[in-house]
Amino acid sequence: MGRELPRRAQVVVIGGGVMGVSIAYELAAAGVRDVVLLDKGPLGSGSTSRAAGGVRAQFSDRVNIELAARSLETFGRFAERFGQEIDLHKPGYLFLLDSPEAVAEFERNVAVQNELGVPSRIVSVREAAALSPLISTDGLLAAAYSPSDGHCTPESVVLGYAGAARRLGARLLPGCAATGIEVADGRVAAVTTEGGRIPTETVICAAGAWSREVGAWAGVDLPVTPLRRQILVTEPVPDLPPTAFTIDFGTTFYFHREGPGLLLGMSDPDETPGFKLDRSDAWLPRLGEAMARRAPALMDVGVAGGWAGLYEVTPDHNALIGAAPGVERFLYATGFSGHGFLMGPAVGEVMRDLYLGREPFTDVSGFDAGRFALSASRPELNIV
């Protein structure tokens, strides 16, 4: 590997996406010394760099709303706080609703969001069309909208956190893959890497789609499944009007402005689990059907490019955050099922507090990985 590893670390963070660098920064900012972060590739080169970049607080789970709202505050002042522009745009998120059940569900969600300070609201079909002029309103009953939501550049967020963490003394080691975790007498003792061994008393797993393997090294079950999601970017759209980040909730088809064109995507119910990062055309007919129905104006726009990334999916589409009961000082923050990037800033704060034995700003105990063994899943409904 050609570099000297630290002789020991107080804490080793495994994973260099937004979650890992946020955690490393928050630990170092709290005065934790000898923080080491490992990633097998360049920082942010896993799922973070392949995210759609959406940031929103419109969720159904109270804790997710609180984590997302806290993160939105950080994104809003990221440039002044970290000296890194993240190209934050706030056109709002617009969920298009075409069934009475969805409308009722979002009315309940909006009530909880409002209670927690999120300025979301149910809007009429007419207002939805004004917020997203490219849509067809056929079959729509209502929509949910929050003006504080938007999108930014994931790679820039990673750069900002990484630079700040390094300035505070954290040691970030991209291109240095972790290969195992040593556990002695029920406690974390060291992390092994492709470049050698790092003795440590604490490991924090922020490895995203690769977290199940990392947990297994320590004998911890992290039920995370990798699932490919694909994104397309269109050619420039002439006279593109201002438009909200638009999601057709019934189909999960979504789009937002990306430069002179649009970024768009959609879930594929036929996708099978695995570490697949190649692009496939199998999902395109279903995407075309959703587009023709909900945004027919886009059917004549060419595709300029695209990519595939990985969701880290849990059985209830909610995160795994906590500390393993059977292995002392093994902590984890993973399984965000597609909303990890937007929650990264807040989760960094939470993991700092869990490490220091402090009470986090929101109660994440319900996200403990052991909930599935207790049949205590807590489904997140607002997933894309």
Q: Notable features of this structure?
A:
8-stranded mixed β-sheet; 6-stranded mixed β-sheet; 384 residues; alpha/beta
Mean pLDDT value: 95
Helix amount: 25-40%
**Beta-strand fraction estimate:** 25-35%
Order the strands across the largest sheet as they lie in space. Answer: 5-6-4-14-15-16-13-17
What is the total tally of β strands? 19
What is the oligomer described by this structure? single chain
Radius of gyration: 21 Å
What is the overall number of helices?
9
Uncertain stretches: none
Give the H and E element order. Answer: EHEEHHEHEHEEHEEEEEHEEEEHEEEH
Shape: globular
Q: Structural class per helix/strand content?
A: alpha/beta
Characterize the main sheet: 8 strands, mixed
Head-to-tail CA distance between termini: 39 Å
Pfam families: DAO
Protein name: FAD-binding oxidoreductase
Keywords: Oxidoreductase
Domain FAD dependent oxidoreductase: 11-354
Characterization of the model:
This is FAD-binding oxidoreductase. Pfam families: DAO. InterPro entries: FAD-dep_OxRdtase, FAD/NAD-bd_sf. Keywords: Oxidoreductase. This protein is an alpha/beta fold and 384 residues long. It has nine helices and 19 strands. The strands form four sheets. Strands 5-6-4-14-15-16-13-17 form an eight-stranded mixed sheet, with helices on both faces. It has a six-stranded mixed sheet with strand order 8-2-1-12-19-18, with helices on both faces. A three-stranded antiparallel sheet has the order 9-10-11, with no helix packed on it. A hairpin with a 2-residue loop joins strand 9 (178-184) and strand 10 (187-193). Helix 1 packs parallel to helix 6 and helix 2 (62-76) crosses helix 9 (340-356). The longest helix is centred in the last third of the chain and has 17 residues, at 340-356. The chain is globular.
